[in-house]
């Protein structure tokens, strides 16, 4: 073999072996960094950020008194497209406030106004109970928003939303 081919082969072999010192240095610095971090203290604080009456607790939970407002679609309707949006006509809703059925928005306002005077929150004297809104199948977002506006207008201060059911 000539000397030129030997030098080229040696150069190729030397080029393949990289210097691992910087990689080892970075690895040790990362290990030291993560050892010095106090992740356990952060994990212990996560449950402390939850509300005191809800969340992870070993004590028995007590039912929270609240007013339930269920929103149902009483009459389906038809829609037409106007400027790229669906416009519904003929929709009717019905509401169930605890055990009472309501068919009109005016009737809902009267019932909620009476309930805000009668039903007080035992945890916060002088304040009305929290209200949970349950929107059932077919009810549109705007209709739920109008219901929440009616609840707030009646004088309730805290409105919660119930989660949907899996299908």
Any overview of this molecule?
The protein has 167 residues and is α/β, with parallel strands linked by helices. It folds into two domains: 3-37; 67-161, no CATH class. The chain has five helices and seven strands, in the order H-H-H-E-E-E-E-E-H-E-H-E. The strands form two sheets. A five-stranded mixed β-sheet has the order 5-4-1-6-7, covered by helices on one side. A two-stranded antiparallel ribbon has the order 2-3. Strand 4 (92-97) and strand 5 form a beta hairpin. Helix 4 packs across helix 5 (141-154). The radius of gyration is 32 Å and the shape is elongated.
Rg from alpha-carbon coordinates: 32 Å
Strand order of the largest sheet: 5-4-1-6-7
Strand content: 15-25%
Net shape:
elongated
* Structural class by secondary-structure content: alpha/beta
Count of folded domains: 2
What is the helix fraction of residues, given as a range? 25-40%
Number of helices: 5
Multimerization status: single chain
Chart the SSEs and their pairings.
Layout lengths: L2 H14 L4 H16 L2 H8 L20 E9 L2 E5 L2 E5 L2 E6 L2 E3 L2 H14 L12 E5 L5 H14 L4 E3 L6
Parallel strand pairs: 1-6, 6-7
Antiparallel strand pairs: 1-4, 2-3, 4-5
Features:
about 170 residues, alpha/beta, five-stranded mixed sheet, two-stranded antiparallel ribbon, 5 helices, about 40% helix, about 20% strand, elongated
What's the short story on this structure?
This protein folds into 2 domains: 3-37; 67-161, no CATH class. 40% of the residues lie in helices and 22% in strands. The protein has helices at 3-16, 21-36, 39-46, 105-118, 141-154, and strands at residues 67-75, 78-82, 85-89, 92-97, 100-102, 131-135, 159-161.
């Amino acid at each position: 073999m000539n000397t030129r081919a030997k030098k080229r082969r040696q150069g190729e072999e030397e080029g393949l072996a990289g210097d691992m010192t910087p990689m080892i240095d970075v690895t040790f610095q990362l290990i030291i960094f993560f050892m010095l971090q106090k992740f356990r203290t952060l994990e212990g604080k996560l449950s402390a950020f939850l509300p005191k009456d809800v969340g992870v607790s070993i004590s028995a939970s007590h039912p929270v008194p609240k007013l339930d407002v269920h929103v149902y679609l009483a009459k389906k309707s038809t829609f037409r497209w106007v400027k790229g949006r669906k416009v519904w006509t003929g929709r009717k809703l019905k509401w169930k406030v605890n055990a009472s059925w309501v068919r009109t928005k005016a009737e809902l306002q009267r019932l909620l106004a009476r309930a805000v005077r009668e039903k007080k929150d035992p945890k916060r004297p002088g304040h009305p109970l929290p209200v949970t809104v349950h929107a059932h199948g077919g009810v549109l977002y705007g209709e739920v928003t109008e219901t929440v506006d009616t609840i707030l207008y009646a004088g309730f201060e805290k409105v919660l939303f119930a989660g949907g059911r899996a299908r």
